[in-house]
Amino acid sequence: MPIQVLPSQLINQIAAGEVIERPASVVKELLENSLDSGASDIEVDIEAGGSRRIRVRDNGTGIQQQDIPLALSRHATSKIASLEDLERISSLGFRGEALPSIASVSRLKLSSRRPEAASGWALQSDGPEPSTTTPVAHPVGTTVDVRDLFYNIPARRKFMRTETTEFRHIEQVVRRIALSRFPVGVKLLHNRRQVLQLPPADTRAAQERRLARVCGDAFMEQAVYVEHAAAGLKLGGWVAAPTFSRSQPDLQYFYVNGRMVRDKLVTHAVRQAYADVLYHGRHPAYVLFLEMDPVTIDVNAHPTKHEVRFRDSRLVHDFLFRTLHDALAQLPAENLPPPRPNRPLQALDIRTGQGSGVPQSRFTLDIREQLAGYAALHPAPATDATTNTPAQHPHEDCPLGHALAQLHGIYVLAQNDKGLVLVDMHAAHERITYEGLKAAHAGDGVRAQPLLVPLSIAVSEREAELCEHRQDWFNVLGLEIDRTGPEQLTVRQVPVLLYGTDIESLVRDVLSDLLEQGDSRRVETSVNEVLSTMACHGSVRANRRLTIDEMNALLREMEITERSGQCNHGRPTWVQISVDELDKLFLRGR
Ligand code: ADP
Ligand code: MG
């Protein structure tokens, strides 16, 4: 083929491939345009998950009649005119690509009116050639009406998921953007039903109400307000106390000069600030706003503008880390999780297996009952009454040997024929619980036990809906949860294996697993992931004192559990150190 210049419609469709991935991307671009136009009120009206219709109306400055065709042409923008402008961007848009891209893959109608104009003007674009503007009745502001997205790109249409899934993505975009501009009122409708209405929020109290609507009441209850400025940087916003952590990084909103960004440097700085106070594998929750001189950031790093480049990344990292670290350090003690097991070695009374006054963790399951159950199944061998160590007794029936003691509240020490066995008790117990749940799930279903007092949990509307929708699925997992309000769930039954755990954070984690997985078909295949999350909650935590009998019960249970050599995260659950190896350590030749 000879080289030829592509027709403009095709160029726009190629650009659309980059920025318009799904209906939610259209919503993002249109909302950003409305914010750039100075609107104080925006309404987003969706039909059929956005595949049939996406309409965004705003009361911003509007577009003059002669500029309307320009707005729909490629590389036409009112936001920058020179390289200098590009280097100090304060608007969300600047590439002049969104409207022509959207128009090239849908039937788009733009109507707009400037304050000084006598009437509004509209332009319908549903082919390669845009038609001319016609007068319309329209209040000051702009409406962009996008119908039949991807009607002319069948390959893209096929990639669209169910209406519910696409709408969930749209809702997420609207929520994210609503948090970036408190003074702007935002309304969202789906199939004519109002889904979200956020009035303008000018006071701190009103802002916190908006936050609660978007992130849930539980987040707001645990959130503290942070504000700090130094070295030309200003950070403000809300961070959740470590007691409200998540199993997924799904409640992390970070804005730079009003633009939502996902940035590795930012994530890293925040993680580090939480490092001392968050369990491994948990994710902090936050809504934070960083303000800085636009000259010191490059937003032109990515077509969808999700990433930014900081000119002085070290400075930004340190500023974020310091500010958040100090804020977390000032939290009252009840907002911190129980101390992590890095305390000095404590004397352990071998005879009783009891330690001296180790605080009980709030996250801890009382596994005594469960282990007592195991113990009944695996009667302990005769022990020497004075030391409570196993009497000289052959270990052949017990590959993992007999428990001697517990170290640092983390490890079980046992003796077998070969030498010393060291068990990570949390990892081991987690594997046992997981395999138990899996077996029960594959068999007659997970056995459930009603809670004496049903537990109410405040969640976001999205989580409540999801739970309602998946009630049967939860039942199979042994969880009976009812939706008892728009943003409230009541837990009535839990799996026997998990009775006594912190059910609230268990349910939150399972919900966030599900939200992360999205589409319903995948949920069926992700049962194991959810069971694994549940098992992690149901497992004995570090710092739990076990009696020798309980330790032995754990060892016996490990021996009969499949894959008990690794915890669910792939770490080993136990190691053997032979007498030979110990001899070598002490240079003890034979
Ligand atoms: P960009 O936002 O990068 O400039 P777009 O293609 O999104 O490019 O929009 C092109 C132009 O159309 C904008 O620069 C702006 O002048 C105008 N425009 C688009 N949407 C609106 C709106 N809601 N209100 C006012 N002007 C708008
Ligand atoms: Mg734009």
Please tell me about this protein's structure.
It is a single chain. The protein has about 600 residues and is an alpha+beta fold. The radius of gyration is 30 Å and the shape is elongated. It has 4 domains: about 190 residues, Heat Shock Protein 90 (2-Layer Sandwich), CATH 3.30.565; about 130 residues, Ribosomal Protein S5, domain 2, CATH 3.30.230.10; about 120 residues, formyl-coa transferase, domain 3 (2-Layer Sandwich), CATH 3.30.1540; about 90 residues, MutL, C-terminal domain, regulatory subdomain (Ribosomal Protein S8, Chain: A, domain 1, 2-Layer Sandwich), CATH 3.30.1370.
* Major sheet summary line: 8 strands, mixed
Distance between the termini: 82 Å
Under the CATH scheme, which architecture of the largest domain would be assigned? Answer: 2-Layer Sandwich
What is the residue-mean pLDDT, rounded to a whole number?
82
Shape label: elongated
Number of strands: 22
Structural class: alpha+beta
The radius of gyration over CA amounts to 30 Å
Low-confidence residue ranges: 337-369, 380-392, 519-523
Number of discrete helical segments:
20
What's the CATH H-level superfamily name of the largest domain? Answer: Histidine kinase-like ATPase, C-terminal domain
**Number of self-contained structural domains:** 4
**Oligomeric organization of the protein chains:** single chain
Q: Which CATH class of the largest domain? A: Alpha Beta
Strand content: 15-25%
At the fold tier of CATH, the topology name of the largest domain is Heat Shock Protein 90
Helix content: 25-40%
Cross-sheet strand order for the largest sheet: 5-4-3-6-2-1-7-8
**Distinct bound molecules:** adenosine-5'-diphosphate, magnesium ion
